[in-house]
Amino acid sequence: MKKIHGGVAxxxxxxxxxxxxxxxxxxxxxxxLIFSNRPCQAAGVFTTNKVQASCVVIxxxxxxxxxxxxxxxxxxxxxxxxxxQGFRHSKEIIQTVAHELKVSPKSILIAxxxxxxxxxxxxxxxxxxxxxxxxxxxxxxxxxxxxIMTTDHVVKEVAAECMIGNRPVRIGAIAKGAGMIHPEMxxxxxxxxxxxxFVTTDAAIEAEALRSAxxxxxxxxxxxxxxxxxxxxxxMVLVLANGAARNVRIEKDSKNLEKFVATLSALFxxxxxxxxxxxxxxxxxxxxxxxxxxxxxxxxxxxxSVASSNLLKCALxxxxxxxxxxxxxxxxxxxxxxxxxxxxHIGNILVVKNGGGVxxxxxxxxxxxxxxxxxxxxxxGVGPSSATAYTCDLSTEYVRFNSAYKT
Amino acid sequence: MKKIHGGVAxxxxxxxxxxxxxxxxxxxxxxxLIFSNRPCQAAGVFTTNKVQASCVVIxxxxxxxxxxxxxxxxxxxxxxxxxxQGFRHSKEIIQTVAHELKVSPKSILIAxxxxxxxxxxxxxxxxxxxxxxxxxxxxxxxxxxxxIMTTDHVVKEVAAECMIGNRPVRIGAIAKGAGMIHPEMxxxxxxxxxxxxFVTTDAAIEAEALRSAxxxxxxxxxxxxxxxxxxxxxxMVLVLANGAARNVRIEKDSKNLEKFVATLSALFxxxxxxxxxxxxxxxxxxxxxxxxxxxxxxxxxxxxSVASSNLLKCALxxxxxxxxxxxxxxxxxxxxxxxxxxxxHIGNILVVKNGGGVxxxxxxxxxxxxxxxxxxxxxxGVGPSSATAYTCDLSTEYVRFNSAYKT
Lengths: 407, 407
What we know:
The structure is a homodimer. By secondary structure, chain A is an alpha+beta fold. The first copy, chain A, is 31% helix and 28% strand. Chain A has two domains: 2-277, L-amino peptidase D-ALA esterase/amidase, CATH 3.60.70; 285-402, Roll (Ubiquitin-like (UB roll)). The first copy, chain A, has eleven helices and 16 strands. In chain A, a hairpin with a 2-residue loop joins strand 12 (343-346) and strand 13 (349-353). Chains A, B: Substrate binds at residues 150, 176, 194, 280, 402, 407. Chains A, B: One of its GO terms (biological process) is ornithine biosynthetic process.
């Protein structure tokens, strides 16, 4: 992957902007806008929560055409469980952005993240939109990335270039995470902080190829991270492809699609890891690699189950090498797990084989568990498949922070 | 339900004992024994974790006959993920108890709870067994209940009487809980603290009727509580029915079975609530009632999902009435949830209807969220079924406690 600068404004034809309008009490940015100077092939994956914000419902309708040209997003308020008024607010935002950009409302996608159940300060947003549009710039990606942050500390922005045929194609993305992160996103389906990721590319790509690229790249990145096992109502990844690179069009089941997916996957994985490193209250970054599972589905289920265990995450917080909790969490997954075949490594130390513990040097294990970056490998020994999930510890700070989120 | 005294030793023909042998470092009891003076009809439900302690595997074998006469249990060590040596230890304990009780090893059931992956101090246990048997008494139930406690603060012991035909039949039970509590137990299946519950009854009951009674009673009690969403490797509920009440034998699909199940269910629910009230670090007791679900399965799934939400549980800890997290957790369940039809009450205050919030008096809601006992009702509005789950808050104390469990 060849990294480049400029985030979502690095692909040709894209501009971005971000600003503060007052949805958030603090002076941090709370609005983001991404715009392509020409219509795009567009696709999205969305939360599979049955309680969905108006933005999720509206985007699905807008994406039926497979076409879009801009993404408007706010942080500080998820505009979810806000009844019909919430839907009207989303539509007013879309109308205003479309009017200012001089495009059809149908070509606008919308996103939101923040508290659930509170009406948006709609006048503040509508009043700010002309300035937001005015500020669109080839250098606006970082400001847009700031505009979607909630409890994030770090701006999440990446971009890379890959060759399709003899033409360079650029992909840029911004994202946010931090809490209520346990995404299970699907192409046309239904699931709250919320994971948002907006992708731009100047690649020329056929509609079905774009959808399958997005779906594949999400599966082994965002859908394999967990911060608190709570699935959001607003999770979405949106991609806009405007074709400005003038490459030979990427078709389904092609070598070029494989290259595009590889670059997209690498960008998503980088963003997914940034989210976990920036998770609410987290003091550790933990990689759970599952090997030799019966199927890819099993590998993913076991990796996500171990990564989700509150007890393991408390042990990680306390640097208490309680590996029994790894074994128990693996066994609770809906997958083929045979304790007699399972091997568990923590760092480079084998801790479990033949159905029992094999640790000789507890001090070495203590040292590994005290690190800020911990890698756990669960070798199921029953098949050919693997998957890696990413998680963090569960800290007293996480509990304190989330016990006073709304008030 | 007519409550009676004596716990597991209240049914005719049963004795119990408990003592300290040294599995636990503290001087608290760590061994428990229950014995019937005659062979019993026996049944058990076990964790559905694929990583199972030797005691779970052995009991399933012993219960194939449907017959047993005694239950031996230790706390302080789960004897799980202890390899073949762990199995040998379980069998040595069974052999020694059988020898002292002068019954067949096949008639002994065994249980354990505590840390995973550590070999039992087997000599201490074997040496103590003669005294444990010696101390069997009609007044030994509370000592036995103490013997299975780990992080529990409260002894969990109940007993009741019901009339079968014209004869009184007694049912007694002891249990423990406190952490790693998210049971999904099934009759002959596979799932870690661990939930243990031992039931005795002097009812005469046919084998299949006993199994179906146990299965039914567990579904709407133990299987609907959650403390930390971590499923144990050692969960089990065992029941011994010795027929000493000389009632007309309870048959499958009979009115008498319904009466027996009603009493058993009431006892299990009382114990399940005791477990949640005594949960690690818990400061609140929370009831999640789901009404008007499409099916009983849906009602249970939504109730468990809301009860399991880390974010909601943090909000409960902080008395922060963040009802959006209730809606999001309901929507993430694998069930028919329509946000436009869902109504949510917290205490007696309607907070959600028509897809949005309806709270007028936030101070009243704050007061209800500050209580020690909170009832949340999620009315799905799509069908006839209901279920109630029980949970606690997620406290900084829970995290602190479980970050230094092993060391």
